[in-house]
## 1
Amino acid sequence: MTTTTNPQTAEEALAELITSYHELNGNHIDELEQPPSPLLFMQYVARNRPFVVRKAAVNWPAVSLWSPDYLTAVMGDSTVKVAVTPEGNADSTVWNPVDGKITFAKPLEVSQGPTPPEILASFPQADVDAFLDRRKV
């Protein structure tokens, strides 16, 4: 007895592959307490898996040194390039609601002249507070 299967379209095959991948790998992101060893880092890279190193920069001088006043003093009237994207996702893939396709969106880089406190003032206060709170950790 011969069994026949329905041939899949490329889109169906890709959807099945993505579903299988997520079933096997999940969407968990590992949180590490310290930077990984070179071997562990390469294992993450080889598997194309993300990870987060919590408090990795806590001892960096910039954490305690950089403040709006410090950056204003250092940067002065320097021009700063800012990547502008609609949802703050920089150079990632985005879904286009017009044609339903996922495309790679390169951010629009614009030159900004304001001093750092003015730049911080352009963000929602909750985001600024969260950023400043993380600096204290």
## 2
Amino acid sequence: MIEDVIQSAIGNVFTLSAITAVCLIFLGSAVFKPNSLSHVPRYEVSEKGKKKNQFPTLGEALHAGYPKFRDTVFRIGGLWNEMVVVPPKFIEGLKALPPNQLSLQDLNKDRFMADLTSMALKDTPYHEDIVVKSVTNDLTRHLGNAMWELDEEIRYGFKECIPACEDWTEVKPVTDLVKIVALASGRIFVGSELNRNEDFLKCTITYTIDIFQAAEELQKYPRFMRRLASYWLPQIKRCRESQATMQRLMTPVVKERLQQMQEGQPVKSDMTTWNMNNSTERRRSDIEYQAHAQLLVSMAAIHTTSVQSSHTWFDIAAHPEYIEPLRREIEEVLKTEPEGYLTKASMPKLKKLDSFLKESQRFNPLGTNTFDRKVWSEITLPDGTRLPKGTYITTAAAEIALDAELWDEPEVFDGFRFEKLRQQPGMENRHQFVTTGVDSMHFGHGKQACPGRFFAANEIKLFLVHLIMNFDVKLPEGESRPKNIESLSGTRPDWTKGIMLKRRVVQA
């Protein structure tokens, strides 16, 4: 094994040497190759951030560029690759373009170096991606049946992961929510036979963390060194270990489902079965492939839901004036539910809760930028700008969310902002947490918008419902809402910060 790795590494070195020689021969012609974007203003992301138009984080670079170029394109360099920032007014014309012309999946494969980090199913084009199919077609359709299981698992997760809180107790949302999210998502993805298994939970959580860290670490190496570096990076080693663990755990599950399918027996309706049904005949029984698919869907669910839920917990603690109105709304809706838990049909009635989540997201988006795409065939924008094949585009989502031309008093946190907007004639079905638009692209927009946002939204709502119905919430004494941590490529909630919880005594 070690000898194979060494031989492979040596082979890579010789191969890279040959490639380098060829590149040097053709360097002259490459230098003088015309760049159709050279006239587009450019900002640079750099940790030093001392030169003109150079900033230490992506957020600061977008904050500088967006007001000046709100209606035209500008470029951001210094990231994993140069990105062309497209203004909101051009998005409607781009959102319907198919993946073979403008692709989110292919950008993510490049950004996260999927061939090295395993952040994509091997040899699987977008139209054959079983995870995308299962989430888009099956998960969303079965949300109604999943609600009681989610409610049950979240109750269990709170008992396991949150202290008793008989008196005011500090809880750290980022770290404490991750396991609850893994439990709840796992219940729908693999069922109760496996979702509480400690190896399964550890596997899904660590894979989510390691795969993002692996991509960040690989970015620190020159391109020609990355494949070699992947052999010794501990994050990638752990990703491979997680894949092996998931394969071991999924083996009896997949074999049992295959037998049930072959014998015409009833098969549990969950992500495992949906993935198998959406696979080709050859892939359906490929346990390594099915295990990898399970890890990828778990990664997406855990990352999105835990981060956004952490933000809402910080925001409800920072704005306790919203707790009572939200409790009253939840109580009124629960009165209509004979089973005592929130169903898919009752979720749309929680308009205040939905609004609070969307306002929290407006201030704390999952990504500073979104609508990320790779251009596969040249596109000409309405202003005449040509985007050549191979260009990466994005939008300044966080800046759009705070744009005074789009929002009244955008700097003010108004938890019921979107509930009030929905009261306007013709706006009843707009401005929901899951709806997207050129003014709200945190889940993307168009055909390639996040297909799992409906499932994630219900989870995030149930987490917040369980929190405020069972606990009083506040920030630690003398502290304000924790600032998000900004990095070169985006923002995230501060995992070191906490909120204070005290279990409620509810009068019968």
## 3
Amino acid sequence: MNRPNAPRPLGAPSQAPVEDGPESPMDPAIQRGLFNSPPFSGSSKSVPQVPFRSRAPSLSKPLPPEPPLQSVASPPKPDLPPPPKSEPLPPKADTSPTPKRALTSKGNCRGCGEPIIGKSIKAADGRLTGRYHKQCFVCKTCASPFATTSFYVLGDHPYCEQHYHTLNHSLCHACTRGIEGEYLETEARQKYHPSCFTCGQCGVVLARDYFDVGDGVYCERHAFGQVGQLGGGSSRGGGSGGLLGVGLGGGVGGARRNPERRTTRLMMM
């Protein structure tokens, strides 16, 4: 017998019908168990299918194709000369130290008398004998070193120019410099360069004849004028005035001041 208030047997819980199924299995309805696909009942009404959504085709224009790469011809290389042939290296020089030779003395220095070891100085023309230390090769009179390689030899000793001509009595009486070559010699044995023997007043060169008045030499023209300035012809004893001749006196105690003609000699030193 059926009881009207009899409890119903427990069964599966009723589910609310779902009109549209989820689109993805990851839908929260499926994850919570709220949606089960209903069994196929054979009825003509079927569960509507979710249409497959596909992405719309891109409306952007396609890129134009890239032009093919063209090969660029490289410029021709210049013709280079062939590399030089390597020459064989020279043999290595022997760098081993050479034994030093014992220095021997070259004799004693003529200047200081000490032995000479090493470099020395000697006359190349042989006019001066012996050897000298470099610091000892000086003028024998003034001990000055020679500025150049030139020097003078007198009595087998070196001299500078000035002291050589002084000892050799070859100094010019006018310029006091050394005479080398031609020179004029007066009757008083005074030596002159030919260009230095001139009139004491006008400066003309006296080639041969000259007049000796007082302590100077003059040409004929100025010699008589010089006598007048010196008071020639005057006498202290009342002698006759005027120019006196050669060998004539000017009275007692009078000095002879008349010009005298003299002659030079051309010599070679």
